[in-house]
Amino acid sequence: MTAEIEQVTRLQSLDLKIAELEREVATLPKHIAQIEKALDSHLRRLEADRAALAANQKERKQLDDDIKVENQKISKLKDQMLGAKTNEQYRAFQNEITFCESAIRKAEDRTLDLMSEAEPLEGNVKKAEAALKEEKQQVEAEKTRARERTAADQKQLDQFKTERQGLVAGLKPPVYKEYERIRKKWHGHAVAEVTDGRCSGCQIVLRPQFFQDLRHADHLLMCESCGRILYYNPPVSFEEHLAAQPHP
User: Across the chain, which distance is largest between two alpha carbons, in Å?
Assistant: First the structure.
């Protein structure tokens, strides 16, 4: 492998890592927004339950006040009945008392209904408050992790980009221009290894003569099918591997 192809393959590796880190950095704020949106949704649900419970309690208090007023009316009507001069007056007072008693029964029935409705509401509010407290802690912890991860990713991105600038500076301008053209065409993948006589990018078998040229080439060669820059790493035999190992 020539120095030039080594530079290009290293550049490809860096570009793929940079793209991956940039995707992650871009994704983290969206992730935070999603968990904050879920938290906000749960908070609105809790506020709705609290509002329903408050309305329930307010109506029960109003009914209690109404019952007191009706009882006061009944007390006054009974006192007035004692001074009735005629049967008609007596029956009129009695009818008013009956009407007040009916209003009290309706208010008491409604109060019982509201008490039945209040019990699950109170339970929901207590559970939601406890769950929301825990969820807020989890969201804050997740946000902290995301900020730390973003900072680490950004630091590594800066390192990779600095290294990339050095590699680009060492490449011939026509070579870098061609690399960028191919990289844009294949969505970031400009370089492909040849394995088993095939381009690993398009999986097309290379012509025997082209493969031989690639093995001994001292300049960049592109796949005749997809146009990617090709490189070839010859297999290392077991004996060669052992020979390359340092001896004790």
Answer: 131
Residue 42's Cβ-count burial label (10 Å; 0-12, 13-18, 19+) is middle
CATH number at residue 138: 1.10.287.1490
Task: State both tokens at 21.
Answer: 């880190």
Distance CA 145, CA 228 (A): 39
Question: What's the pTM?
Answer: 0.64
Query: How many other C-beta atoms can be found within 10 angstroms of the C-beta atom of residue 23?
Result: 11
The C-alpha atoms of residue 199 and residue 227 are separated, in whole angstroms, by 10
pLDDT in tens, 118-136: 999 999 899 999 999 899 9
Residue type present at position 71: N
| Residue stretches of the chain with pLDDT short of 50 | 238, 240-242, 244
Does 178 share its domain with 165? no
